[in-house]
Design a protein that fits this description.
Layout (H helix, E strand, L loop, with lengths): L41 E2 L4 E4 L7 E6 L19 E7 L7 E8 L2 E10 L3 H20 L8 H31 L10 E9 L3 E7 L3 E8 L9 E6 L9 H10 L7 E5 L2 E4 L9 E2 L34 E6 L4 E7 L1 H4 L4 H9 L8 H22 L4 H6 L4 H4 L5 E7 L1
Antiparallel strand pairs: 1-2, 2-5, 3-4, 4-16, 5-6, 6-7, 7-8, 7-13, 8-14, 9-10, 9-15, 11-12, 15-16
Helix pairs in contact: 1-2
Length: 412
């Protein structure tokens, strides 16, 4: 949850920030367990589609590339996009606001991690539709065919952008029905999202917000370094209001609005004092004046003048990497992972535990171990044992220590 506490939004001060600067209670959180209405995993002969079910304890999802392998008597199989992949989750919020989904079909793998804020609704809405939407857009654009690598990459980027925009527009249509009936809170729910697309020849990442994907790539031994190392290659850039690049863009787009960026500290800044991510799904009250009305607030609006939306966008930044035999795996995660580990630390941790031939259950073991390492670091930050940390009830108390955590490990 990247929203500050609800209520009036004066310029934040250090005293306004909870113990964990990223902590803020979900606007639509409800008491009781909730799996978001997720369908059970479905495994088919040549296609594996998974939507990760979320509960109030660690959740894991594992799939092997063998699920996409033709029968022995069939013609030579097409190369598989990935060897295996796994998801591990742990909740801080109640219910969890992170969601994940994936599909693997022969030469194509699509995985998505969503990190909701203000509630779980947008993350669930997008996660249950994202993999199918990406496949549809890539197919309609015939994106993998073109006269040059540059042309193919351009088509792939456009297809992913269309997938993000289309899903956000679908959410807008759904929200409009409730908003016009007086349920204005639905305009304040949002989600960051990162999508990983893998083919035998490419690794593609589309990101909107501060989820992250990092590629583990082997580097040869050099000089005194006798062993090969695995370098961390960023596939995404965080879109967060604390980033000077994002601040410059906001001030340029909204001249004269001194409150377009409000910071509680150098590392905790908000768009219009309300939201840390500068890209994402939902958050319609920062995207359109149509969703600014709120009769329950003084003045009848959520955001007072000056107000010149949109302040955030859903279009992702797309990174496309040509695969080589040196590319080993990708780690995808919500900011609950990256709050406690750097890119390099996460890649080093996985590379020490993931063998060249690891599949299925082994990939799951590595994903689970990475999540446990995050919890250990969170506990250490607060002088607690992991056992004591896990005994904290999900909701406000646990949320002051760490965010929802989602880890996806994809073995190439």
């Amino acid at each position: 949850d990247d929203t500050p506490p609800s209520g009036p939004t004066p310029s934040p001060t250090p005293g306004d920030v909870p113990a964990n600067p990223r902590s803020a209670p979900g606007m639509l959180g409800v008491e009781g367990d909730d799996d978001g209405g997720m369908p059970d995993s479905a495994t088919l002969k040549k296609k594996v589609t998974t939507v990760t079910k979320t509960v109030t304890t660690t959740t894991t999802t594992v799939q092997e590339s063998e699920a996409a392998t033709p029968d022995a008597e069939a013609p030579t199989a097409a190369p598989s996009a990935v060897r295996g992949y796994a998801v591990s989750q742990y909740n801080a919020n109640k219910p969890i606001e992170d969601k994940a989904s994936s599909v693997h079909e022969d030469e194509l793998f699509v995985g998505a991690v969503l990190d909701g804020h203000g509630g779980w609704e947008v993350a669930e809405f997008v996660s249950t539709r994202m993999t199918a939407e990406v496949q549809t857009q890539l197919k309609e654009a015939d994106a993998w065919v073109g006269p040059s690598v540059e042309e193919v990459d351009k088509k792939v980027g456009a297809a992913l952008d269309a997938a993000f925009v289309n899903l956000d527009n679908q959410w807008i249509e759904l929200v409009r029905q409730f908003f016009n009936q007086g349920f204005t809170h639905v305009a304040k729910v949002g989600s960051c999202g990162v999508v990983l697309v893998v083919r035998p020849d490419k690794v593609v990442c589309a990101n909107a917000g501060d989820c992250r994907a990092v590629l583990g790539r082997k580097e040869p031994a050099i000089g005194k370094r006798k062993r090969e190392t695995v370098a961390a290659v960023p596939l995404s850039i965080d879109h967060n209001c604390r980033d000077p690049r994002e601040q410059v863009a906001l001030f340029k787009a909204h001249p004269g609005e001194e409150d377009v960026v409000l910071c509680a500290s150098p590392n905790v800044c908000y768009v219009k004092g309300r939201l840390q991510p500068t890209r994402g799904f939902g958050d319609l009250f920062l995207k359109s004046a149509e969703f600014n009305n709120d009769p329950t607030r003084k003045g009848g609006v959520m955001m007072p003048e000056p107000f010149s939306p949109p302040y955030i966008q859903v279009s992702p930044e797309v990174t496309i990497v040509e695969r080589t035999e040196k590319d080993q795996f990708v780690v995808v995660g919500s900011d609950g992972l990256w709050d406690f580990m750097s890119n390099e630390e996460a890649i080093a941790f996985v590379s020490e535990r993931l063998s060249k031939t690891a599949k299925g259950k082994k990939v799951q073991e590595v994903a689970d171990a990475l999540l446990e390492e995050v919890l250990a670091r969170a506990a250490d930050d607060y002088g607690m044992t992991v056992h004591a940390l896990k005994k904290l009830p999900p909701g406000r108390r646990r949320r002051t220590k760490h965010d929802d955590i989602t880890v996806m490990v994809v073995a190439l």
